[in-house]
Amino acid sequence: MQRDADFLKRTIFHARRVLATAALLLSSCSLEDLALAPAQTQNFDQLRKTMVESQLRSRGIRNENVLRTMLEVPRHEFVPAEFRARAYDDGPLPIGMDQTISQPYIVALMTELVEPMRQHRVLEVGTGSGYQAAVIARLVSQVYSIEIIPEHAKSAAERLRRLGVQNVEVRAGNGYLGWPDRAPFDGILVTAGATEIPPRLVEQLKPGGRMIIPVGSAPEEQVLKVIQKDAAGKVQTRDVIPVRFVPLRKQ
Ligand code: SAH
To answer: Which of 27, 102, 129, 217 is catalytic?
Structure first.
């Protein structure tokens, strides 16, 4: 009897030690490690589903291809480790060097407004984390993305390569001037706020193409605009919603 009790005590003691060691190991894991754990990945899948329904579909995003793409692209891979748990929140997040990854709804809206088609070649100005580029890349044949901060251009290009995105070319440079070597484009997404519509970007739009761009003389006055060039080259502009983007640098 006494021996059984001793055995039980020893077993409990041993089990406690194992548990304590496991807890210690777990707490010393970096966020990075945790993000890769299967349970966490499942959690992200669930958060992404909820994001698509409650932030996108409910607010009027209708294009099923866009909704599917937002469900597929792992946004948590595009935010710094310390913000990973908030990757599917309804807002922008810091990505370093005073820049932000846009709110999921704005990414989906811009993607829908550019009316992507399989054969399209699209320019993005403001690569940032590479998330918008990864989203639009799933819907068109080729994306060219230009970023003025070389460190962001480099890390976004590496991230896209690591995630297996093959149809995005990233370059460091001033996108206010477009990317003349790759022009003309079926679509242009400008993901930084301009004070006026950049003339070189309008020039680099194909007849029949559209540019989606936030424009405003001050950050609190920005409006998301659709600039459409018809087959004859005539340009029409319409306002969609008020927005707030980081500034588009002219140089
Ligand atoms: N599309 C990004 C978010 C963009 S944040 C994403 O999905 O994560 C805006 C980005 O535009 C910043 O990285 C900023 O450095 C860049 N930017 C600002 N002015 C620019 C310019 N003239 N040319 C290219 N990039 C510019």
So the answer is: 102
The model carries a pTM of 0.86
In tens, the pLDDT along 62-114 reads 999 999 999 999 999 999 999 999 999 999 999 999 999 999 999 999 999 99
Contact 141, 167 (CB under 8 A): yes
Nearest protein CA to atom 17 of ligand 1, as residue: 126
Q: Which residue has the tokens 């699209």?
A: 122
- Which tens digit of pLDDT belongs to each residue from 179-218? 999 999 999 999 999 999 999 999 999 999 999 999 999 9
> Among candidates 167, 201, 169, 162, which has minimal Cα distance to 183?
201
Residue nearest to atom 10 of ligand 1 (CA): 126
Distance CA 171, CA 98 (A): 20
Which residue bears the tokens 């990973």? 84
Cα separation, 224 vs 247, in Å, equals: 13
224 membership: H or E segment, kind and range: strand 223-229
Kindly state the tokens that stand for 197: 């519509």
